[in-house]
Amino acid sequence: MNKIITTLLLFVALHSFGQGVQVDTLKVSLSPRFVDLQYERMNYPIVRTGDKRIDFLINNDIKNKLTHNEFPEASIDSTIADWAAEGIVYLDFQVTYNKQGILSLNISTEGCGAYCSSWTEYFNYSTLTGKALDLGDVIDTKGSFRELVLKHKKAQYEQQRKELKKMLLDTESGLDSATYEWALEYYNGCETSSELSSFALHQKHLEIVESCYLPNAIKNLTPVLELKYKYSDINKHLKIKI
């Protein structure tokens, strides 16, 4: 009995002092179709909070979102194995924030079919309730902070257009006018259609993830945007303690 009480007290103490939960690694086998690629990274995260109900909520949500609900009722092990067998050649994760009852992590993936493409998805949870957190749960997205982000995003897209124009004018870049117009069309579309939804928490800053996916033929022209905000600078907008 004393051992059980001690364990429970230790778990409570960890949460009381803002310590993080455990994130284990599930090793995933590479499909036999791609063994020649010799990828070493096939790692999938398993969250352990000490509460089975919360663990189920978080892990099941990650599994279903990552696999687009292909196997909603199957176990994590079998789901990830079956999903990876369809052409996943790289799978790895990074925990960027894990304290104050909040977990923020991302999972990077590369899949191969007719061609290979890579992407990263972002996940944020309350480890006290198991609830997936939206950006609006973390920070006020309707006031001046939203205006600030949109201003920065607009300025960075404009800078990316200028860089694209420089490439067009550089005869050694290999960029022709048709490809330039094609990429520019995507830039404009991404800027006007994107929403403030994907985000990641880090130790000292909040990152708004702005992704603009271009066709594989012009993937090298993908615009790179960086929207990072120190907690100390946006403290008045935060809804939770970080």
From TrEMBL:
Top-level taxon of origin:
Bacteria
Please identify the protein, giving its name as recorded.
DUF4163 domain-containing protein
Organism for this UniProt entry: Pontibacter cellulosilyticus
What lineage, starting at the top, does this entry show?
Bacteria, Pseudomonadati, Bacteroidota, Cytophagia, Cytophagales
